[in-house]
Specification:
The chain is of the alpha+beta class and about 180 residues long. The protein has helices at about 1-10, 30-45, 100-115, 135-145, 155-160, and strands at about 15-20, 50, 60-65, 65-75, 80-85, 85-90, 95. The strands form two sheets. The chain has a four-stranded antiparallel beta sheet. A three-stranded antiparallel beta sheet has the order 1-4-3. The two termini are about 30 Å apart.
Length: about 180
Amino acid sequence: MYESVCSFLNRFGGDLFLGVLDNGPVSGVPENAALDMIKNFISVVSDPIQFMPTVYLAPKILEYEGLFVIHIHAPPSAEVHSYKRVVYDRVDDADVKVTATAQLASMYIRKQNVFTKKKIYPFAGSDDLRLDLLPRIRQMAGNCVGGRHPWESMSDQELLMSAGLYGTDIATGEK
């Protein structure tokens, strides 16, 4: 599942439905385990040791004909993500490990050309941001997932990095 999330983020995005078989039939997840499954999922994608850079995703529990399904939407990301230090890309219905330097470089170039939000503003500083809104953002993130969210325990700098608002351009070293 995490390899698929990583490859979706690295390519065009995608949707995962836990409790739906690959060929379509709905098998469901146990209702009493669904919230724990979501908490575990959020814990993994928010852990920089397992998922880098971390990502904010909000799984939802859906009910279909008395069965429970967890829907996870992973949008395309401007970042190149790795799971357990392995970068994955999506090719048709497969999650493919990216091992060649040329493949990785191609992924960075593709993302750089698609996502304009990666523009570096070297003279922008934290005083240009409304840091007074971060407590409210932490609270909203917690409310969205129905409990504790990793942003609640992150420093302001870690939160900004996790949200993709602060980073380093690996080609130039600009921050």
